[in-house]
Amino acid sequence: MELICPAGTPAAFREAVDAGADAVYCGFRDETNARNFPGLNFSRDELHDAIVYARKKGCMTFVALNTFMRAGDEEIWYSAAADAVRLGADALILADFGLMAHVREQYPEQRLHVSVQASASNPEAINFLVEAFDAKRVVLPRTLTIGDIARIGRKVKCEIEVFVFGGLCVMAEGRCSLSSYATGKSPNMNGVCSPASHVRYRQDGSDMVSELGTYTINRFSHGEAAGYPTLCKGRFDIGDARGYAFEDPVSLDVMGEIEALKDAGVSALKIEGRQRGKAYVAEVVSTLRQVLATAPSGRGPLLARLRALSEGQKTTVGAYEKRWR
Amino acid sequence: MTELTLGPVYYLWDGPKWRDFYFQIADEAPVDRVILGETVCSKRQHFIEPHLAEVVERLERAGKSLAFSSLALVTLERESRIVKELIETSDYPIEVNDLSAIGLIKGRRHLVGPLVNVYNGPTARLLAQRGADRICLPPELPFSSIARIAADAPDVALEVMVFGRMPLAISARCAHARSKGRIKDNCQFVCGEEPDGLSIRTLDRQSFLVLNGVQTMSHTCQLLLSELKDLQEAGVNAFRLSPQDCDMARIAAIFQETLSGSMEPQEAIELIGHTYPKAKFSNGFHHGREGAGWVSRAKSNAHAP
């Protein structure tokens, strides 16, 4: 199975390549990708250098253009696609059908992957994208169990890539407007979720309050670590109950299940985290590389090291296990 | 001619309530088109089945155009089967809400629901080429995008949701069941206890969202009335009312009177407030702001009615 690794900066890109990534995915420094954060991503020149570096080391580069084109400004996405193709991207990761159709028509030889943001969660959806746009690979949404993935794997005419480590979307990806409901900025339109520009921390007595827009997302009592107010990981009152309404502040780690994923027909494992620093990327990629190279019985210490690398050190296997639902 | 569409009931209403709601719609509501069928959770399907035939008959007798909604999130084999069967056996047009339905329905005339990501003209044109006659655009879209899509895709009819809590997200996980100590697989249909959604408030007691099974919706109710004229001029020719647990026939009548020019938007906003008194209204997405916001035409910094 291929290891697909994130890079938000040229430095992280080189670390990922050196640590043994089979492919590194990244995006341009604008709203054409779903990690449009300040200080992150690549200029055209930086992508050129990155691809040259990766090629020399036998590593592929995937370019994410996985937001939805703003009506009237399609040229921004078209020119990003043109430049990614010209610079030699091994695959484009796309979510918008309009953009998929454009890429298919303009660059018939370009390899096209379906982004998780397209929310292709079943065989009929995936085969539609294969037939309509000649998609070669689909990144599955984090809404499926390993059993579901195996069933899909038997029925689809393309490769399957799944997220195994890093941030966890609780909602079906690409189908969530929670962030824009509170802030006006969304993953689909702006490439951001719960953006830092709308985050505020406020001391209230002994509590630290985290806010997104005008909404309180969490309250932390004295001594409790204050997490980032990602909307779906907040604490709320739901009817008469109080707690994490959607999901605790945990991250995804299914490296303990990679044999089952392999049996399910998965051909690539994806690490989330283009917003993470180069040291984190290097450590995670090299550890996952070692996990893949080690027999299942000997993986214990490596898996423990991964757990320590996770945000807040609490992890979940998420939807991959049925009871999560 | 501008049309009014009644979107599918997103909530779980018990069979008799669901039936009586549509009987009232058939008898009293000036809507042109009614979209029927479970959209949110495949487990709920059996609640409406015993009443479907009589509801369809009553609505048809009242001269309503009918269409059936496909499921929003399809992950299980059973759900794939439900969508396939709906498309293969329905005598009515289908409103597609996920990619599997878009793939399966190719070449047949159909509608596209607001849960499909149509953000631009090229995507709208692509769907039209595959057989879409009408697209109800996602609630997140600002007016600038709506107008541009209408200009770029003149061959497909466009619809915009103008009333109702907005569908904001859907998950494989049922937060509604979890809040009551259950999980999706043994939920016992606890989402039926809240026919207008289960309120999520912030720890500072701000009303924020509501849960509807696996779907998360806005606490605010989308209300576009002052905006109807701009939308019509941009080429939008249908407006969607999404059912809430209030007098929807009255809501439809208020919209109809506003569209015909016999009622001013400001008066209509007040009347809607009386008809759905517990609602807080929003139109922020339309104006390119946070979706929960309210932009008043008269005073741009006024608060919601």
Description:
The complex is a heterodimer of chains A (325) and B (305). Chain A is α/β, with parallel strands linked by helices and 325 residues long. Chain A has 2 domains: 2-168 and 250-324, Aldolase class I (TIM Barrel), CATH 3.20.20; 178-244, no CATH class. Chain A contains 11 helices and 15 strands. Chain A has helices at residues 10-18, 44-56, 74-87, 97-106, 123-133, 146-155, 178-183, 187-190, 258-263, 278-293, 300-309, and strands at 2-6, 23-26, 60-65, 91-94, 112-114, 137-139, 159-166, 199-204, 207-212, 215-220, 235-238, 241-244, 251-253, 268-271, 315-316. In chain A, strands 1-2-3-4-5-6-7-14 form an 8-stranded parallel barrel, surrounded by 6 helices. Chain A has a 3-stranded antiparallel sheet with strand order 8-9-10, with no helix packed on it. With 305 residues, chain B is α/β, with parallel strands linked by helices. Chain B contains 10 helices and 12 strands. The interface between A and B is large, with 71 and 75 residues. Strand 11 (235-238) of chain A pairs antiparallel with strand 8 of chain B, so a sheet runs across the interface.
Question: What is the CATH class designation of the largest domain in chain A?
Answer: Alpha Beta
CA distance, first residue to last residue of chain B: 30 Å
CATH architecture of the largest domain in chain A: Alpha-Beta Barrel
Figure out the total of helices of chain A: 11
Q: What is the CATH architecture assignment of the domain at 3-166 and 220-266 in chain B?
A: Alpha-Beta Barrel
The overall average pLDDT of chain A, rounded, is 94
What's the shape of chain A?
globular
As a percent range, the share of strand residues of chain A is 15-25%
CATH topology of the domain at 3-166 and 220-266 in chain B: TIM Barrel
Question: What would the principal axes of the Cα set say about the shape of chain B?
Answer: globular
| Low-confidence blocks of residues of chain A | none
Main beta sheet strand tally, sense and closure of chain B? 8 strands, parallel, barrel
Main interface: chain pair and counts: A-B, 71 and 75 residues
Helix content of chain B: 25-40%
- The Rg value of chain A, from CA coordinates, equals 19 Å
Structural class, from secondary structure content of chain A? Answer: alpha/beta
Q: In percent, how much strand structure appears in the residues of chain B?
A: 15-25%
Assembly of the depicted chains: heterodimer
The overall strand count of chain A is 15
Classified in CATH, the superfamily of the domain at 3-166 and 220-266 in chain B is Aldolase class I
